[in-house]
Amino acid sequence: MTNATGFAPRAVLADRLRTHGLATDAALVAGGALFTAVMAQVEVPMWPVPITGQTLAVVLVGATLGARRGVLSMLVYALVGLSGAPVFADASGGLHALASPSFGYVIGFVPAAAVVGWLARRDWDRKVGRAAVAMLLASAIPFVTGLPYLAVALGALGAPNDLHSVLAAGLYPFVVGGVAKALIAAGVLPLAWKLTGRR
After folding, report:
1. SS in 3 state form for the chain?
2. 199 residues of the chain, pLDDT tens digit each
């Protein structure tokens, strides 16, 4: 099957499934959201932002499903959580999550999944070196939305929200773990391609 340019579209891991179609895509999107919800409960409790497995889930979902399905999966995750399902960290959910200092990171999951999914369609998930670059880049994106959101939320709570305080609360504690999770994903994805028999 070719696209409008006459070239076969590049595959992501999800495209290795034998069945295709709307039902399969819906199941993949739902599965990605569920996986993210489960990884959100792998948590080191901290305030105002806990350390969780969500970022690892986001980069794996985005790379495995591709940009479109990855974005949809993160949107489903966020909307299900806001509707009240206990899918966010600490089994929380509901509209009050919008006031949480950490919700800006959840917003950032959407563009992170888009970027890593786009890169995966261009073979950046096939070799460990390039996969590491892609995963590190995607892992950094939630901080772009997370840190400003954190600053506003801390200010609303009457807590210090100067640049040093925000970075100390929302960036520095996550650097080592973020790099580790990105490297885990960068190792898992090329291995998964080998196991699926891709040449």
Report:
1. CCCCCCCCCCCCHHHHCCCCCHHHHHHHHHHHHHHHHHHHCCEECCCCCCEECHHHHHHHHHHHHCHHHHHHHHHHHHHHHHCCCCCEHHHECCHHHHHCCCHHHHHHHHHHHHHHHHHHCCCCCCCHHHHHHHHHHHHHHHHHHHHHHHHHHHHHCCCCCCHHHHHHHHCHHHHHHHHHHHHHHHHHHHHHHHHCCCC
2. 444 444 345 799 999 887 889 999 999 999 999 999 999 999 999 999 999 999 999 999 999 999 999 999 999 999 999 999 999 999 999 999 999 999 999 999 999 999 999 999 999 999 999 999 999 999 999 999 999 999 999 999 999 999 999 999 999 999 999 999 999 999 999 999 999 875 4
Q: Which two tokens stand for residue 58?
A: 């986001």
Alpha carbons 191 and 143: distance in angstroms, whole number: 28
d(CA 116, CA 62): 6
How do beta strands 43-44 and 51-52 pair? antiparallel
